Amino acid sequence: MTLSKSLQKTKAIFTQHNADSFNAQLFENVIVLANTLGVSVRFYNANVRKQGGSYAPDTNIVSVNANDKLADKVSRHILHELIHSVTYRAIESKQQELLDSAQIQGIQELHDAYEKISHLKSAFQQEKNLAYYGAVNVHEMVAEVSNYEFRKVLKQHNVLDIVVCALHKIIDNYTNSYTAFYAPFAIKDDDIKALNKELRQYCKAWFLPSSVVKTQRDIEYLKLDLEHRAKNSTGTKQKNSLDLLDKVNKYLEKVSA
Q1: Residue 128 pLDDT more than 80?
Q2: Cα dihedral 149/73/31/161 (nearest 10)
Q3: pTM over 0.85, yes/no
Q4: Contact, 201 vs 211, CB < 8 A?
């Protein structure tokens, strides 16, 4: 399978910086699935005190901080966010009929494992001990298997093997029906750019504060705002609002198709 350009770059950066054999093996499984599920990765350079990365389910985009001062952590951050990208929506899925029985079992096992370490959440919140960041919730627990220090925490509580096994039950058992549903769910990057271009022109024409949409939720809020503006305006301003509203509705239809 040929990886997308963004994932080819991601693999090169991960391989360059990674020295963790556990992560190397897991990465090979995760990146192939991320490619199948249409995940894209962006790298940015920000203050090292900012987060190492993020995953946006609405856009299916992973963002990773590539600041040079984080070079020793960038491979871990890449894998952490990629794990989110291939597990988050399965764990949160309201359509379990699209999941394989092994995935459903794996998700339950993750929740059961989290119950055994959830008391450590306070250690992270009060002491800001990053070794316990995985205790924040189920999603962070599974993504933090990319962190050697957190794997030691899981091992101390006798759940490391359970979490890793449950993770593989999720990522190794995607059905074709779920994969087909998953791919069009995200708003693609080009669509976001096109919509923001229209939005900038609209704001400039009517002397409104510049606005940018990044997620499906942003677009839904924009829809409500445009409906209000169209209802309470006339003439050209009403027409412009209705034109942009039509484009917004088309994007939302594309997402839910």
Answers
A1: no
A2: 0
A3: no
A4: no
Predicted confidence band at 81 (pLDDT cuts at 50, 70, 90)?
very high
The per-residue DSSP string of the chain comes to -PPPHHHHHHHHHHHHH---HHHHHHHHHHHHHHHHTT-EEEEE---TTS-SEEEETTTTEEEEE--GGGTTTHHHHHHHHHHHHHHHHHHT-S-GGGS-HHHHHHHHHHHHHHHHHGGGHHHHHHH--GGGGGGS-HHHHHHGGG-HHHHHHHHHTT-HHHHHHHHHHHHT---HHHHHHHGGGSPPHHHHHHHHHHHHHHHHHTTPPP----SHHHHHHHHHHHHHHHHT--HHHHHHHHHHHHHHHHHHHHHH-
Per-residue pLDDT reduced to its tens digit, 231-250: 888 889 889 989 998 888 88
State yes or no: pLDDT of 139 exceeds 80.
Answer: yes
All CATH 3.40.390 domain ranges of the chain, comma separated, are 5-185
Give, in words, the CATH class of 5-185.
alpha beta
CA distance 77 to 147: 9
31-80 pLDDT per residue, tens: 999 999 989 999 988 776 557 888 888 778 898 988 766 677 899 999 99
